[in-house]
Amino acid sequence: MGNEAFSHLDPDGKARMVDISEKQDSKRIARARVAVSMAKETVLALKKGDVPKGDVFAVARVAGIQAAKRTGEIIPLCHPLMLSSVTVEFEVSDDKVEIEAEVTTVGRTGVEMEALTACSVSALTIYDMCKSMDKTMEITDLVLLQKTGGSSGDFSR
Amino acid sequence: MGNEAFSHLDPDGKARMVDISEKQDSKRIARARVAVSMAKETVLALKKGDVPKGDVFAVARVAGIQAAKRTGEIIPLCHPLMLSSVTVEFEVSDDKVEIEAEVTTVGRTGVEMEALTACSVSALTIYDMCKSMDKTMEITDLVLLQKTGGSSGDFSR
Amino acid sequence: MGNEAFSHLDPDGKARMVDISEKQDSKRIARARVAVSMAKETVLALKKGDVPKGDVFAVARVAGIQAAKRTGEIIPLCHPLMLSSVTVEFEVSDDKVEIEAEVTTVGRTGVEMEALTACSVSALTIYDMCKSMDKTMEITDLVLLQKTGGSSGDFSR
Amino acid sequence: MGNEAFSHLDPDGKARMVDISEKQDSKRIARARVAVSMAKETVLALKKGDVPKGDVFAVARVAGIQAAKRTGEIIPLCHPLMLSSVTVEFEVSDDKVEIEAEVTTVGRTGVEMEALTACSVSALTIYDMCKSMDKTMEITDLVLLQKTGGSSGDFSR
Amino acid sequence: MGNEAFSHLDPDGKARMVDISEKQDSKRIARARVAVSMAKETVLALKKGDVPKGDVFAVARVAGIQAAKRTGEIIPLCHPLMLSSVTVEFEVSDDKVEIEAEVTTVGRTGVEMEALTACSVSALTIYDMCKSMDKTMEITDLVLLQKTGGSSGDFSR
Amino acid sequence: MGNEAFSHLDPDGKARMVDISEKQDSKRIARARVAVSMAKETVLALKKGDVPKGDVFAVARVAGIQAAKRTGEIIPLCHPLMLSSVTVEFEVSDDKVEIEAEVTTVGRTGVEMEALTACSVSALTIYDMCKSMDKTMEITDLVLLQKTGGSSGDFSR
Lengths: 157, 157, 157, 157, 157, 157
Prior knowledge:
Six copies of one chain form a homohexamer. The first copy, chain A, is an alpha+beta fold. In chain A, 31% of the residues lie in helices and 31% in strands.
């Protein structure tokens, strides 16, 4: 397998930010998903307790949106992008919180990393807010669900 | 379960940055771990191909170290902390790369979130660098391994 | 009044970054204004004293320009924008300094928040530089003066 | 009035970050307050409408807390500080929302600018979230309410 | 010589971010170069020692790429730009390391400052990583090599 | 020459942020210097022209001070530090502007990189503000002048 597989590496294997100047602006969307596994008691406290869960999720949602916008700073070889929209949704079940992020841009490159970063940072924020009662949480199964737009073709998991 | 379980929420359930001004400076260490699952071909390309894997890991390591330092910016309710050290290590097996981060500080609060953030961002960076050849990677099993120092007691998974 | 009034909230009332991908690029300008009220002695020190006022205003101007560029980081649901120009002007009277900022972009959304943020941060910088002699200053009357461009129509106060 | 009045300016009037290396660590608290004046309809929409006001305030609270932590980046001559706590509270009346922020640190210099910056950015965030329905809002009466700790004496408005 | 020579200053000599809203998007490239002079022993340690030089250069390369992306934050009057590519190359001789950076964008203004900033920060990173063995290093001869695109004409040193 | 020469590299040569948790807080000062060489006409425009040089230097000074505070973000393996003071001075001669920065902290590690970064960014800012009239400027001779405090001994060039 040759070097062309890794577009971030030049023929000598050094890191670079790959050239997208010849690509065209197009509308691009990406969706990613992650889960925060936690003790049932922690979920219950989030769902039914005195704890106003709304606020936990509101903080985690804001954190994810802001992280999506700063992906080009956080991930070294990502291009800076002007995002058109970011949404972050939560789904709570017995022993986990699942997070889905969708990011849209009109630009020269895709937004998978932005959607994945939004999920990661939302999950870390939930972890941070629950860690005083549960240190065994796991952030798990972060995947790209779907990607549309751009010349490399659509992807759907 | 009362509100005291969630130290980031005040008695009315609103977000706040919890007061650590009465806590003492002490040496605190945290270790976290995450895995990036990928196709065996992707691991092979990383390990044996023409691709100089050193660079992929070097970039991911730098990304993790820098993210650890910026945790207080990325996670909304984290305290800013002056980190004393950060290390990020990689272990490559057949179908995944595992990442372990260790963070040390001398301060008034622990560094779990810093270690977890370093792992997340290193994993996202590996994902970013391999995504042109493999869109089915998963970032998974992010956990806190160990935490020492501070008044709340040590933790080991 | 329905939810459509608050474009940052989806139909369920959760925060999101609203989708601007279908909007067109157009030239957009916004002007905002704020006042820093202070003791007459503080104004005199700024205007006539040995203190070279130029430098105070130069620092406050730079702070405002830089803040305008970072509005998308500072205000959680603002879109990142590539600003075309930023100017910050000062007008000194007996008991206050007034600041006016104008921001221009060619983009898919307006720059009111950028102009307001430039004013706020310039005002805070003046406050910071004068606070050792006057702790009773007030930052007041921050308003949008004018907004042109975009499909929602022009606004003038 | 001599130059000593402006501690940010050296004897020649140039900007500098003043030396605090000989000051002692002590616990310091500052409280600031600001108002966002708006049409009664806007307040009603926030208070009674279908709009879940919790989310608006949750986003504005997070924005204020994060801005407090980044004050040393936003205000050019502020010292970087490790904040011990930040709280942001809202009080809604007929035609305005008032915001009060309290910041605590254990450090060599005070946190007035951090409290004022938290208020400013929370107010700007409320403005941003309501601006689609009301372009005549004013952010006004931003003042320091109280300041304790440090050698320069306490201040109370 | 009149004020028009300094496009960052308005006719009264105050700083501003110059208006580029009437300029056209075009592909723009800039290349810059810098040298880090060091003791021959330091170069030898970099080149032949047990030290894996790859990592030093990998870290410095990442630092330069990231700094290029953040030029609009670091240099007060620079416009934010969406970079299309960044490359950073090293050339090691007897008593120095030379660094060349090339930056590409499709935008309304040039990328000289981005190329120069990438060089500066890469050089500072090498300095940082070698400073424990050599405190007499010099970072020197930072120049713009070439600039193409845009209406002001091409430049080549 | 063994690996111990490069304290940023572990025995296997991988990057890390070196552990300073066992070091003691002490007052540390560093001074650095750099020159911006330019055409005599450019210096004259700065010195005698209609151009108010004060503003150019004011902007460059603010840029240097802010960059010093963000050194831990800009240089990947630098520790975050709480700076006690930063000063940036300019000296103009026939064909160059020289910049000297002094940084002070009370902390566990030195501030050479902060002083060097302040010089670099001040120089880049002058370059940026003069580049419309002179594209042949050079930023050159960036060196550490002096370093005091800490266990590794003082250094003076």
